[in-house]
Amino acid sequence: MLKEISMTEAQQLDRAIGAADEIFQMDEQTFRAFYDATARSLWSYIYRTSGNATLADDLMQESYYRFLRVRFSELNQEYMKNYLFRIATNLLRDHWRHAKVEPPAPVERTLEREVARSTQVTRLGDAEAGLESDVMSAMKQLKPRERELLWLAYVEGSSHREIAQLSGLREQSVRGLLFRARARLATLLRRRGLAPEGAQR
Amino acid sequence: MNSSKPFACEKEARVIKSVRTGFWDAGLEQHVADCPACSEAAFAARLLNEMRATDEAEARVPDAGLMWWKAQLLAKREAGEHATEPIRLIERFAYVLAAVCVIGVCAWQWPSLREWLLSHGNSGLQMGLSSFTAFAGHAARILNPAIFDKSDFFAGSTLLMAAAGGLLLLFAIFAAYFAQSEE
Question: Residue A54 to residues A77, A97, B19, B113: CA-CA distances in angstroms?
Fold first, then answer.
């Protein structure tokens, strides 16, 4: 939605409506600091759970826009970050819900991106790029919710309680789903010849 | 359950945190080597965090200032749309009311209108001009109180009243809207 605004239209709107200072609770400086601290991790979360870079761009912008419209009782960084991820998770769910009736999201772009990445031998070694490609492929075979849970728990370091609040699940359910998601990922990776030493015993 | 299957371990959270931060407690690394669940958790966490590190380095996210500016504009546009919603509603209502009034007047004056339509030629510009002139004369006759036929008026008074009421209502809505927007 944000991408649809052209420069001319934006300038016209700005002139027509005038400067409205109290649109958002957060001031620009606070937002900039918060955005710089969270944007990349949010983009990464959406990209790795959706497998679509374009979608990640769109949903990230939409998430921040919705986030800015929320009136928080206190500007607690951790709480706000969780709230932001909650918005993104809901947007992802909406996307998947609509994707059931619409044509599936293009995965070609993602694959192209992965191929492009794996050829970046100057930044990543061949083996490393191949490993990432394998992990991404394995991730794609998981359910969207499993990818969400794994990312939140293992990358964002969210507790089961935080994940439960964020995803709308019960804490006990999160524990079980997370265990199964990790087991599935390990199985998929094992099929690609990637597995931890301990788990193979 | 298979005994070789990794079960959830109480140290998993610490293991994941250690993978994320890179700081390992004494004995935790040994525990990971011995515990299938923690080993699997550490492995998954390491792979996922490597992906995250790649994204951190490569993701091209928009500048915070640009995001702020766009969000503000979008909010203003939405506010503008919200503010003009009553005007659009009234406009639609006015169109409907105008159409109803035209239909009502036509129905009310249908005998005269029909007579006037039938009394003129079949086609062409001449017909159009003469029709217009005749219609203007007919309208002037209706509107002139000196030659106005009261029976015609009372025959169609219900429709006329309805049309007038509609117009009054429209003006009242406009007046209320502008009074509110002034406030």
Answer: 27, 18, 29, 63
CB contacts < 8 A, A to B, total: 157
Q: Is residue B44 within 8 Å of residue B72, measured between CB atoms?
A: no
Provide the residue count of chain B: 183
Q: The tokens 């990445």 sit on which residue?
A: A117
Q: Where do the DSSP E strands lie in A94-137? A: none
Contacts of residue A128 in chain B, CB cutoff 8 Å?
Answer: 50
Comparing alpha-carbon positions, the chain A residue that sits nearest to B16 is: A154
Select the residue from B5, B18, B28, B74 to test the A interface by mutation, using most A Cβ atoms within 10 A.
Answer: B74
pLDDT tens digits, residue range A47-92?
999 888 899 999 999 999 999 988 887 778 888 999 999 999 999 9
Task: Give B126-177 pLDDT, tens digit per residue.
Answer: 666 566 666 666 666 666 656 555 555 555 556 667 777 777 787 788 777 7
pLDDT at residue A119 in the model: 47
> Which architecture, in CATH terms, is A24-104?
Orthogonal Bundle (1.10)
Mutation site, B23, B49, B69, B77, interface A, largest A CB count within 10 A: B77
As separate numbers, helices (DSSP H) first and strands (DSSP E) second, chain B gives: 8, 0
Q: How confident is the model at residue A177 (pLDDT cuts 50, 70, 90)?
A: very high
Q: What is the ipTM of this complex?
A: 0.72
| Whether the predicted model's global pTM rises above the 0.80 cut | no
* Nearest Cβ partner for A155 among B52, B58, B71: B52
- The nearest CA of chain A is from the CA of B79 a distance in Å of 9
CATH 1.10.10.10 positions along chain A are 142-193
CB atoms within 10 A of CB B167: 14
Report the candidate in A59, A58, A60, A53 with the shortest Cα–Cα distance to residue A115. A53
Beta carbons of A65 and B71 less than 8 Å apart: yes
In this prediction, residues A137-147 reach a mean pLDDT of 87
Which CATH class name applies to A142-193? mainly alpha
- pLDDT tier, A120 (very low <50, low <70, confident <90, very high otherwise): very low
Of B34, B51, B64, the CB nearest to A31: B64
* Residue B63 C-alpha, separation from nearest chain A C-alpha, in angstroms: 8
Domain regions of chain B by residue span? 12-58, 75-182
